[in-house]
């Protein structure tokens, strides 16, 4: 009988210690390879201390991270800005919302076959991303350099059809954002998204001919966000993710790693 009681006590103690152990929760977040997944890797260590295991799923496009979030395969994603997300929601019937703005990646104009904006010949070819808000952003940067003029009512969904004046008869070629760096040698200039530039070894702060003004409205409008499916905004794991990404550890990592090509805005 005593032996049985001892066994029962041992089991009870084991269960008690197991119950006192720190419970680990999993959070699955989709991200572009650079810089988003790299930044999340830093936040992962911060979250681990709070009992959150961060699973980072890398994507090379701008569509699947959102459809995966909508379907529930992801808990959150980190790769886009709000104008793109809003445009995606409208076009795909998704229900995604922003819960935090983390950083800003300046768009840049990069030299291809032509070495400078000043040397640009009539009829030259400039490539821009073809996805909704990013195309508008690229066109606005070209407009800021005096290369084109957009219609007065052209907003964050402007396309080449909204070009009102094109004095150099430039050939503006729309293409998938991921192809911009690959085809850079075939065009005169290219307006490239910050993350794809980084993946190709280009830094907007040092390699671009010109970039967006970091003090402009673009820095806030095009800030890269944490997106979740509507209804998940108050998920405790999401709130902890935001806190980790807005930590001094992550801010220092961004500033020390990207030399101005990625700018924290928290």
Quick summary of this structure?
This protein has 266 residues and is α/β, with parallel strands linked by helices.
State the main characteristics.
266 residues; 5-stranded mixed β-sheet; alpha/beta; single chain; 10 helices
Structure notes:
Helix content is 38%, strand content 24%. The protein has 266 residues and is an alpha/beta fold. Strands 2-1-3-12-4-13 form a 6-stranded mixed sheet, with helices on both faces. A 5-stranded mixed sheet has the order 9-6-10-5-11. A two-stranded antiparallel sheet has the order 7-8. The model is unreliable at 12-20 (pLDDT under 50).
Set out the fold topology.
Blueprint: H1 2-20, E1 25-32, H2 33-48, E2 52-59, H3 64-71, E3 76-81, H4 82-92, E4 96-104, E5 108-111, E6 125-129, H5 132-144, E7 149-150, E8 163-165, E9 171-175, E10 189-192, H6 194-199, H7 204-207, E11 210-211, H8 218-221, E12 224-229, H9 236-245, H10 248-258, E13 263-264
Parallel strand pairs: 1-2, 1-3, 6-9, 6-10
Antiparallel strand pairs: 3-12, 4-12, 4-13, 5-10, 5-11, 7-8
Helix pairs in contact: 2-9, 2-10
């Amino acid at each position: 009988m005593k032996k049985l009681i001892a066994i029962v006590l041992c089991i009870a103690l084991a269960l008690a210690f197991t119950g006192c152990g720190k419970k680990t929760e999993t959070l699955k977040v989709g991200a572009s390879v650079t810089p988003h997944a790299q930044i999340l890797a830093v936040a992962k260590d911060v979250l681990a201390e709070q009992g959150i295991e961060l699973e980072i799923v890398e994507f090379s496009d701008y569509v699947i991270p959102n459809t995966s979030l909508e379907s529930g395969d992801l808990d959150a994603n980190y790769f886009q800005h709000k104008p793109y997300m809003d445009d995606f929601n409208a076009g795909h019937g998704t229900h995604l919302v922003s819960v935090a703005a983390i950083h800003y990646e300046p768009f840049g104009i990069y030299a291809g076959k032509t070495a400078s904006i000043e040397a640009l010949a009539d009829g030259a070819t400039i490539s821009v991303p073809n996805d909704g808000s990013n195309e508008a952003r690229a066109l606005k940067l070209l407009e800021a350099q005096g290369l084109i003029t957009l219609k007065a009512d052209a907003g964050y969904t402007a396309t080449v059809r909204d070009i009102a004046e094109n004095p150099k008869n430039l050939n503006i070629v729309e293409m998938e954002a991921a192809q911009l760096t690959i085809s850079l040698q075939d065009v005169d200039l290219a307006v490239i998204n910050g993350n794809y530039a980084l993946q190709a070894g280009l830094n907007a702060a040092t390699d671009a001919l010109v970039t967006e003004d970091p003090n402009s409205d673009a820095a806030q409008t095009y800030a890269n966000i944490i997106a979740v499916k509507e209804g998940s905004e108050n998920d405790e794991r999401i709130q902890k993710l935001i806190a980790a990404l807005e930590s001094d550890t992550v801010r220092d990592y961004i500033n020390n790693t990207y030399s101005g090509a990625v700018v924290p805005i928290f």
